[in-house]
Specification:
eight-stranded parallel β-barrel, 1,4-alpha-glucan branching enzyme, alpha/beta, single chain, 28 strands, about 550 residues, cation binding, 13 helices, seven-stranded antiparallel beta sheet, Immunoglobulin-like, TIM Barrel, Ig_E-set, GH, 3 domains, hydrolase activity, hydrolyzing O-glycosyl compounds
Length: about 550
Amino acid sequence: MPNSIEFSLLAPYNKEAALIGSFSDWKDIPMKKGKDGYFRTKVELKDGTYQYKFRVRSRSWFLEPDEWVEIVDPYATDIDDPTQNGIIRIKEGEKIIDTYVWKHDDKPLPPDHKLVIYEMHVGDFSGGEDDSFARGKYQHVMEKLDYLCELGVNAIELMPVKEHPGDHSWGYNPRYFFASESSYGTTEQLKNLIDECHGRGIRVLIDGVYNHSEASCPLTQIDHDYWYHHSQQDAEFNWGPEFNYEHYDKNLDIYPARKFIGDTVKFWVREYHLDGIRYDAAKQIGNYDFLRWVVQEAKHEAGVKPFYNVAEYVPENPSITNSDGPMDACWHDSFYHILTDHLCGDTFDLEQLKDILDGKRQGFMGPNNIVNYLGNHDHNRLIVELGNRGIFDDEVFKRVKLGVALLITAVGIPLIWMGEEFGEYKAKTIESAKLDWKLLENESNQSLFQYYKGLIFLRETNHALYSGNIDFFHEDPDNKVLAYTRWNDQGSRIVVVVNFSDQYLAGYQVPHFPANGTWHEWTSNYDIESGDDNILIDLPEYEAKVFVWKE
């Protein structure tokens, strides 16, 4: 039996709009505009799946005045990629996204301070050139969740998964903000992936692109300047039409761009049961009022469960995340740059190292406010940077392990860029670059994986690393040695001694050691005694010793 289904389109200053679809043989169904700026019409539809679009007289300055244009519904939740039509599904007389039934909503998830985040690109995560199976879909990520559990990460951060043009992209060119990327799989398969993550205690964050859209986003065709700045605001960093969060429509009492992005954020959190968002290009967005509002909208939608809002604000600024800032945290880009310079041997500056290992020195409030990384999608992996300087083989793995020790024991939330943990060495590219999983069969690569795994387990089990406490108790600029201790009020204590030089320091004495007694060196698995506030160790070049207090 047919049901009356309403279609609506916000276009308050456009003269006419019509609905077309498979249900009307693609002939116009006129729409009537209300005082709230919405064009509406109702259509009698039986249960089933239909394709549709809107036609509207455009007010965009790059088209003829009142020119008729065909557009996809900006709120379409699914797209037929070949035809670029919106898809609507009707079941039992109601509009639905899909029929997925969530299974693991009751599973406890780790709080923000315990997070170890794994950033991945769905299309490249699960493949490998010599892999004979089709890869690059949500279901293939799901097949590797046991691997991620073994590594010990408890959050994955998906690079943008909103519908973009073509089948391969990093996703920073979203065209349809309510639709998930069809080349990765269906909405049900994305939900199944997230659900299976939750079943394993893994939180799922998505990368949200709210600074701009792809040029063919339907909003650009309806009335460009109603949602976007007329012209680019930042000549250096421009990736498409930029949302104008300052524009206020006093007739309707709305900020159009804020409303649209707020609606998409709430939709994704509600529909996909997300656990956090990374806000791309937050520095370019710049509007703290909007960011504060949208973060609160996301958290309200998430309800009682933890929800982590992280800004890409580069170069970082503590104001984005401190008490008066809108975000929970920001990407700690100086950590990457300064540590890379030191691990490559380009420089040595103890004050810079202390700044990135203890973000409070840079003005950040605490450990949950910064996300540290040795690399991410925007940077070359550390192994590539080292290779560019002629550092290879055992030496490259040695320095990468030093980076890992600092990443996991620094104050802050660690993030791992996919493949780093086993020594993937492809250079940064926006082209397809699937992970080479066969590398794990090599002894050096497997050893690096085990090193990551061991230190992540240390973070999980020794809560000194959750705290904001850090004390740099020994500095030796001549030998390029730095030692620091991490502790909490419950008696957990860790000491890290780092040699940034290319010299093997035999019989090295570390004075002012925090406690006398037995310590366990975590990475090589042996016990050692300290006495008279000193400890005597052999400290190989470019290596960190991680001592865990036993008694």
